[in-house]
Design a protein that fits this description.
Layout (H helix, E strand, L loop, with lengths): L2 H12 L1 H7 L5 E5 L6 H17 L3 E5 L6 H8 L7 E6 H10 L11 E10 L2 E4 L8 H10 L3 E5 L5 H13 L3 E5 L3 H9 L5 E4 L1 H9 L4 E5 L25 E8 L4 H14 L3 H9 L9 H22 L5
Length: about 325
Amino acid sequence: MHLPRLVATILLALATGAGAQTYPAKPVKIVVPWPPGGVSDVLARTLAQAMTEASGQQFIVENKPGAGGTLGMAQLAKSLADGYTLAASDVPSHAISASLYTKMPYDVLADFEPIAVIAGSPMVLVTQPSLNVRSVAEFIQLARQKPGMAYGSSGNGSITHLAIERIKQLTGIELQHVPFKGTVGAVSSVLGGDAALAFGTIPGVVPHAKAGKLVLLGSSFAKRFSQIPEVPPIAETLPGFDMGFYTALFAPAGTPRDILQRVYAITGKAFANPRLKEVYAASAAEPGTMSSAELKATMAAEVRSWGDVVHKVGLKID
């Protein structure tokens, strides 16, 4: 931690009682380290509006995309730890970056305070109907008989890439990776018969499944998801498999605990906002339920588990 920021943090800690009582006394910036218009951006903006209504003070989103989310998080790491600059970022991408990038401008765990999971949505594992498999177990059996089938992902080092690499490690099956620019390309490769497997989003794959063009093998959360209750979790076949598109709210390290608790409370009120519920449902997302302490422990576990996958795959980005 830089000395000026350390001094500022100490002064903030001394005044934390009064600060927390009046927080937020001015507009709060939420950095989104992804481009405008994407699902993460839509969810963050919806939450920001609901937090504005819940607190009576403005919460404003600022996009700072680039370098797999690390540019925006670097901005947060350098910000004053007073609760007036936060970030809403993808949990897996944040955790993966700790081992994926050779040069990082911050420490993924030490430089941030995880506050709350603001949204979560599972990935859905899909395959071609022509393969005549209807479950994860059946696909694994087929892959053992036909090693080397292709799978699509949204890019090297993405969660959709590393999640299938984790399946490979857990089962010993051999699959050939074909990266695309986004989940749409990966799912399209399965639709076109070029790839046998891919992870997609609920809005991106369920309509195709209803039309008979895709088979939904399993969801990536540990339990069945409310919007696709008929799809079993992959964990029923591969115990412990639990991952997905989680977005969390972060503050700089050293932010006074009372202010962190105040932000957490505001997010809780925001989750009850009718408009937020409507947008989240349309995006196949649900608000999180973890406490700040649970999220902090989860982040540490995510960094360890994703780091293991990255190292085994041998990925590095300069």
